[in-house]
Amino acid sequence: MKMFAIFGNPIKHSKSPIIHKLFAKQLNILQQYKKIYVPINKFNNIVNYFFKHGGFGANITIPFKKDAYDICDFLTERGIKSGVVNTLKIIENNKILGDNTDGIGLLKDLQKINFIHKNSNILLLGAGGAAKGIIYPLINFGCKITITNRTYKNSCNLLKHFNNIKHIDVLKIEDINNIINKKKINYDLIINATSSSIKGEIPNISSNIIHSNIFCYDLFYDSSITPFLKWCLHHGAKKISDGIGMLIEQAAYSFFLWHGIMPNTTLILKEFKKKYS
After folding, report:
1. CB 106 within 8 Å of CB 137
2. What is the pLDDT of residue 222?
3. CA 80-86-88 angle, 5° bins
4. Are residues 87 and 185 located together in one domain of the fold?
5. 65 carries an active-site annotation
6. Domain shared by 197 and 139, yes or no
7. What backbone phi and psi angles, to 5 degrees, belong to 106?
8. How far apart are CA 105 and CA 87, in angstroms?
9. In terms of Cα–Cα distance, which of 104, 62, 64, 66 is closest to 83?
10. One domain, residues 219 and 176
């Protein structure tokens, strides 16, 4: 039986083992999948130990997606473009292949819930690994993205990573109010890619960004509404979604990389919501 795991810190909240169990059951595949807590600065040791002792594939969550990228021998195009990876697979000669399924998983979910179109103007909150992993597929789809972050330098570094390609811009978080007040811009979709919801916090951003027609999406998920989405509703948003759909979609692409078969995510999402949320 092939062994898989998800590595992260924190990891207790992860629903990935449940999702991959549902995938395996749906497709009649035997596998073992567990979650592994990784102390900071111990990622390489723990992941290498896992692979040396029979591990076949892994998912990587915060804050180790850059560390995962660094240990790869080979990368998919998505992994190369993102600069961070969330999926690892052992291939020939015990080499490690890295992929990033976050962006394609997010795009798939946004399409399913009708939160996105090819010309969507997106405000992306956050400039860390989570944000880095989702930008390329969204730009490739035809969207325009403005990155804003508590630390402006991190936003600029993220822009630099993508070689200042068209349709990506950066904005100081304190300048958002001025732009909205002057009616220079109107965002269609706001994506929270910060870790604020995990900490029970809200991004320090002007509420003027919220209007009744904006779509609000939190990459984080919880059994109850996330702090960010609660804040969005309070300030007038009508269309919100947490990241459970993305989690299932990105997990399906990981599953496909490992097994060569794609689960029916629509059925899995219904079953997950019915049994586990």
Report:
1. yes
2. 81
3. 85
4. no
5. yes
6. yes
7. -65, -50
8. 12
9. 66
10. yes
| CATH number, position 66 | 3.40.50.10860
The one catalytic residue among 12, 15, 25, 65: 65
Peptide bond into 203 cis (omega under 30): no
The total of other beta-carbon atoms located within 10 Å of residue 259's CB is 17
d(CA 265, CA 251): 9
- Listed in sequence order, the residues at least 6 apart from 212 whose beta carbon sits closer than 8 Å to its beta carbon are 236, 237, 238
Answer yes or no: do 94 and 123 share one domain.
no
φ/ψ (deg, to 5) at 117: -140, 175
Domain that holds residue 223: 104-242
Q: What is the pLDDT of residue 184?
A: 63
| Length of the chain counted residue by residue | 277
CA angle 267, 269, 270 (to 5 degrees): 65
Is the whole model's pTM more than 0.85, yes or no? yes
154: domain CATH number is 3.40.50.720
Asked if residue 210 and residue 269 are part of one domain, the reply reads: no
Which has the closest alpha carbon to 206: 218, 222, 190? 190
- Looking at the structure of the chain, the number of domains it has is 2
Residues of the chain under the 70 pLDDT cut: 164, 180-184, 277
